[in-house]
Design a protein that fits this description.
Largest sheet: 7 strands, mixed
Mean pLDDT: 92
Low-confidence stretches: 1-8
Number of strands: 16
Distance between the termini: 23 Å
Shape: globular
Radius of gyration: 22 Å
Order of helices and strands: HEEEHEHEEEEEHHEHHEEHHHEEEEH
Helix content: 25-40%
């Protein structure tokens, strides 16, 4: 970690107890639970941590309160107490066995503030605050939800979660964690989760009507596979409101665009910077992927508290030479066109495309931007107030860049990424705006 915390972090010692199972508090539905095609493509484990300071009541009961609340909230979110398996159609499906989430109690040998800067992924140090199932060879061998509560000497504690993305997208995950927190505080769920994912099932027969370049395989003309064999460096770059506005104005300065959002300007800026930092061949085709929330775009709109993935990947393709040889506005326009493309028809087409082809999004020569800046990580409250720090432990793929909100008013954006050491040095230079 940076900011002089590398020594402390590298020496962080966490003693984990043997994991136990936390089943739902009441009897729940058994049998197979359908996962949509939007769930199938993102069955990766997402690891996050939430750091809570001690208050006047201390944290002596934190583990029991969180564990008891988990048991109760799993009654509503019962598939999380099941296990992933493969359906006769060779797709992921949940077997609702009710056996429970995996839960681990742990003790750290230091105070919470010694964690230092967690604004960038740190798989080695922060990885000790989440529990990895030993020997798991695939996601089928990892329960959909694994939780670890680590007590610190100061009385603070950290909740570390491993959750399979196929169970829900960012919005759904935060709704679950916040419902868990509400339950811990003795509050009823105002709106229970909407469980029926068949509202997003494929048409019969499937009718894909878009090309769906998100699945396109791109030839690696730039030999980036060799570059990625070098040591990976992880960094976080903060874009405050002034920097974001500067980028937005820069995108508009040549008058080719009428308007531009800060998300569009920032996405375009980092796509260009990463392309240049990786020294891609001018003829190298490069792809931008990012998730768009389909809740308001699909017809009829997806119900409130939908338990599942309602995001769809949209994309843009461009040669590296063309990307870097044009003004920032050119790249912003590509981003805008990708956003605009997502409609009810596009989402239905994406669902049907997977049904017909079983293709997976290809990440060769690709940048995948995941936006967590609108997610309510900071509102989770188990009875000890909101977390003093929260964020990811590791990025799920080397091609992923994460946007996280930052600051008290959540108006700044932290850009988190990993790059091979030489490329990171160049990328840092491009970030000095």
């Amino acid at each position: 970690m940076e900011n002089g915390n590398s020594k402390v972090m590298s020496e962080l010692t966490v003693e984990q107890s043997q994991p136990t199972l936390v089943p739902p508090a009441d009897e729940t539905k058994k049998g197979l639970y359908f996962l949509s095609n939007l769930d199938q493509n993102i069955a990766v484990i997402v690891r996050t941590i939430y750091c809570f300071k001690s208050d006047e009541k201390g944290n002596e009961n934190a583990i029991e309160i969180i564990k008891d609340a988990l048991s109760k909230v799993l009654v509503h979110y019962y598939p999380l107490a099941g296990r992933l398996t493969i359906s006769p159609e060779m797709k992921l499906i949940v077997d609702c066995t009710g056996e429970g989430a995996l839960f681990v109690e742990a003790e750290a040998d230091c105070e919470l503030e010694q964690l230092g800067d967690i604004t960038k992924p740190d798989p080695v140090s922060l990885g000790k605050l989440v529990y990895d199932v030993p020997g798991a060879k695939s996601v089928l061998e990892i329960p959909p939800l694994v939780a670890q509560v680590t007590n610190f000497k100061c009385g603070g504690f950290v909740l570390g979660l491993c959750m399979n993305h196929c169970m829900f997208d960012g919005i759904g995950a935060m709704e679950f964690v916040n419902a868990w927190g509400q339950t811990a505080r003795g509050l009823p769920l105002e709106v229970p989760p909407f469980m029926d994912r068949t509202i997003l099932q494929a048409r019969n027969p499937p009718e894909p009507e878009f090309p769906h370049h998100e699945f396109a395989q791109i030839e690696d003309l730039s030999n980036t596979s060799d570059l990625y064999e070098q040591e990976m460096h992880y960094k976080s770059f903060c874009f405050d409101p002034d920097k974001l506005e500067h980028l937005r104005k820069k995108a508009l300065e040549d008058k080719t665009l009428e308007k531009c959002t800060t998300f569009e300007a920032l996405s375009a800026f980092v796509w260009r910077a990463r392309t240049e930092a990786l020294d891609l061949n001018p003829n190298q085709q490069t792809k931008l992927l990012f998730a768009v929330d389909g809740r308001p775009r699909i017809n009829p709109p997806i119900p409130e508290k939908f338990f599942g993935n309602a995001i769809v990947l949209t994309n843009s393709l461009c040669n590296a030479g063309e990307l870097l040889g044009n003004h920032l506005s050119f790249t912003v326009k590509l981003v805008q066109e990708a956003v605009k493309m997502v409609s009810d028809n596009y989402m239905r087409s994406a669902i049907d495309y997977f049904e017909a082809t079983r293709a997976r999004p290809s990440l060769a020569a690709t940048l995948l931007i995941t936006t967590w800046s609108r997610l309510s990580f900071h509102t989770t409250d188990f009875g000890w107030g909101e977390p003093v720090l929260s964020g990811p432990v590791v990025l799920p793929e080397k091609e992923v860049i994460l946007f996280l909100s930052n600051g008290k008013e959540r108006k700044s954006i932290n850009v988190l990424l990993g790059l091979p050491a030489p490329a990171m040095k160049k990328f840092e230079h491009f970030m000095q705006i």
